[in-house]
Write a structure and sequence with these properties.
heterodimer, A: 113 residues, mainly beta, seven-stranded mixed β-sheet, four-stranded antiparallel β-sheet, 11 strands, 0% helix, B: 114 residues, six-stranded mixed β-sheet, five-stranded antiparallel β-sheet, 12 strands, 57% strand
Amino acid sequence: KAGVTQTPRYLIKTRGQQVTLSCSPISGHRSVSWYQQTPGQGLQFLFEYFSETQRNKGNFPGRFSGRQFSNSRSEMNVSTLELGDSALYLCASSLRDGSYEQYFGPGTRLTVT
Amino acid sequence: QQQVKQSPQSLIVQKGGISIINCAYENTAFDYFPWYQQFPGKGPALLIAIRPDVSEKKEGRFTISFNKSAKQFSLHIMDSQPGDSATYFCAASRGETSGSRLTFGEGTQLTVNP
């Protein structure tokens, strides 16, 4: 069974621009979570989606948003990019809402210049 | 508020030795405690996990020890190998009633020397 896929793998953007990242969960998994990983803050939860509904949201500004489609694929969007948004953005999928086991994709490395 | 504290930040072990990484949590509502292994350029991979109704779980060379009263849990890697060199993260979640949100520790960079 294929793992979690994320596209693109690498991205360079300029301050003020916006970006959209994509995640395809493991086949059959219906819940998708997003995390930001930085050297300074570590791994931080952004949000979780299940059945196209945001289930949970972390402590991030409104510039960070996401959505989930009927096929469970998910996208996250960051508007008005700041230098501090440079990070590895990780998507994790789990079987259903509230499932304990989460499986991560390889991440999208975003660099903001 | 940092709810999961992990130590040490870095660890160097000789091949064949035992690697021990510790975590402490604050929120007693947590009921699932996984460990993740991350290699450079990769996403975290689920290694082993434990629920608070058991005190120890072993899978191959990896063992989680859990102390509910002390709100602490640890990862033991027996017979450590150079291929185990990676960053290890402990995490905790509240499971079913509030989604799958994971709260991570700061990470431990493990180096196993040959």
